[in-house]
Structure formats: structure tokens, C-alpha cells
Design a protein that fits this description.
Layout lengths: L6 H17 L9 E5 L4 E4 L15 E4 L15 H10 L5 E5 L2 H8 L9 H5 L6 E2 L7 H11 L4 E4 L3 E6 L4 H23 L9 H19 L9
Parallel strand pairs: 5-6
Antiparallel strand pairs: 1-2, 1-4, 2-3, 4-7, 6-7
């Protein structure tokens, strides 16, 4: 088994992302959860029940790839099934950020999809589908997102929240940045829709912007992951 070259660095990053999401109002109380790969068969994740804005490094939980904690005294998030679905469907996924961005959730309450109405909505997020409502903490939530994971990196969860997959050398920060961008775009859409219906960018423009997004992802994916052979 190969470990991440710096588990400490990943713990520091996870604590920072929890504080960032809390400070920006994307989670509150015990909401939200984070996870990241420590290697091909190990994960680091946030514990159940704790406020993610006030985590310490020692609060974090190490599990195997099936979500079973290595320390009996610490339990992973009850939403771990959501995270495992991402790792199972996307071997290139290195981290998962689950939060409750208020403006994005508001769109799902209205029955509206996120409209690719701004360049940032395409270059930072790509396609953002909405998974149908399922009871949080159950296998049904994981089942609801699976059909979208092969083609999307960000998924809205109806009446619940959103998840963002992270890639590259700082995957938790990548996922956190996507979550912030998601709520920002949703906020603009809600504000604009108070005056008139929001329209998407022209198809040709979306195609060009998506090419930019894919090129940026390719640059991130060039360095090999620590556990892959040279």
C-alpha cells in the first residue's frame, strides 16, 4: 500500500476547507462533509456530528476505500455513501466536497436547473445536473447521483445541497472553489430571474468555453498520482 506523501498536508488542507466553507455560509452547524484520497485504498474524511468550521487535524477520520474507519473511536460522516459513489464511479476523483450552498439549493426548491448563463458557469463548473431528492444518509442518495458522475464534476442535490469533485495537486481546494462558484452563479441567476427569464450563453460559445475547461483539467491531470507507477 502506498500512502500519500504528506498526510499532514492533506489534514491541514481539509481543516482549512472546512473553515472556508463555514465562513462563506455554505455550511452551518453539523452540515457538510469532506473526503480525500490518501492512496488507492485509504481515505481521509470529516467526522460525523462536528461543525466543519471548527475542526482540528486530530478530529479527522481515516477509512478504507469502503468507508470503514480504522479507529473505532471516530466515525466518518453519515453521508459517506455519497463520497464512496464518487470514488467508485470516477477513479480520477481525488476529493469530494459536500455542502449546502443556499442559493443553489434555492434553485432546486423552485424546480430550476443551473443555467450556463455566465462564462464562469462553464469554465469552472461544466455541466451541473440536478439529482432527484433522496433521504440524506441513505443508499438512495448515492444511487441518485451515480447516473451523473461520469459526465459531471458538480451535482446539485434536490432540496439537500450539492457535491463537487476535486482534482489536481490540491483537490480539496479545487472542490471548494467549485462549490463557491456554484453558489455565486446560482445567486446571480436568482437575482436576474426576478426581472426576466435567464437565458443560456449561445451553444457555440458554451462549446468554446468547455474546451477551455477541459484543457485546464488536462493540465491538472498531467502529474502522476503518488501511488501510480512511473
Amino acid at each position: 500500500m502506498f500512502d500519500h506523501p504528506s498526510e499532514r498536508a492533506l489534514r491541514i488542507q481539509m481543516v482549512e476547507v472546512g473553515r472556508r466553507l463555514h465562513a462563506r455560509g455554505l455550511i452551518g452547524g453539523g452540515e457538510g462533509n469532506l473526503s480525500a484520497r490518501l492512496g488507492p485504498r485509504r481515505l481521509l474524511c470529516t467526522p460525523t456530528g462536528l461543525n466543519k468550521g471548527h475542526l482540528r487535524e486530530e478530529d479527522l477520520v481515516v477509512t478504507d476505500i469502503d468507508g470503514v474507519a480504522q479507529d473505532e473511536l471516530r466515525r466518518p460522516s453519515t453521508e459517506m455513501l455519497l463520497h464512496l459513489a464518487c470514488y467508485q464511479e470516477r477513479p480520477d476523483c481525488l476529493a469530494v466536497v459536500h455542502a449546502h450552498p443556499p442559493h443553489a439549493v434555492a434553485l432546486t426548491l423552485l424546480g430550476e436547473a443551473l443555467v450556463p448563463c455566465m462564462p464562469e458557469a462553464v469554465t469552472a463548473l461544466g455541466e451541473v445536473p440536478t439529482a432527484p431528492y433522496a433521504t440524506p444518509g441513505t443508499e438512495r442518495v448515492a444511487d441518485s447521483i451515480r447516473p451523473h458522475l461520469r459526465t459531471a464534476e458538480v451535482v446539485l442535490l434536490e432540496r439537500h445541497g450539492a457535491l463537487a469533485m476535486g482534482f489536481g495537486p490540491r483537490p480539496l481546494l479545487d472542490g471548494s472553489d467549485k462549490m463557491e462558484m456554484l453558489d455565486g452563479v446560482a445567486r446571480v441567476q436568482l437575482l436576474a430571474s426576478a426581472r426576466r427569464p435567464v437565458t443560456a450563453l449561445p451553444e457555440e460559445e458554451r462549446r468554446l468555453l468547455d474546451q477551455q475547461r477541459l484543457a485546464a483539467r488536462e493540465r491538472l491531470s498531467r502529474p502522476r498520482r503518488p501511488w501510480e507507477a512511473a
